[in-house]
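Notes from hallway chat w/ T.B., transcribed later so I don't forget. T.B. wanted the structure written out for a chain they're using in a teaching module, and asked if we could keep both sequence and structure tokens in one place. Agreed to drop them here.
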Amino acid sequence: MVIYMQDMFLDDGFTKQNASLAIILMNLFSAFGRLLPGLLLQFKPVKTFTVPFIAVSMTVVSVLAAYCMPMLAAKLVFICFVGTAFVFFLPVLEFL
């Protein structure tokens, strides 16, 4: 999917520089997204099945918001959330 991300951003009206920035931000925040489930599961009230639910909800909201936002800065912020949410549930799959 990442192969086609730059083309998707260019079709959405991004310049090549902004499309590259969006991909870099998405990948940087995906590293944070891999750490976040482990941090959440350290708290006792958080159940294992809660984390994938948060990931799916966060993915749906951030993808829709990134698609609907007219301003570039807002799109970049929600693209950061997309990068976090895409890998958010991967470390939890071992526990299920």
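Follow-up for T.B.: Residues 2-94 form one domain. Might be a good example for the class.
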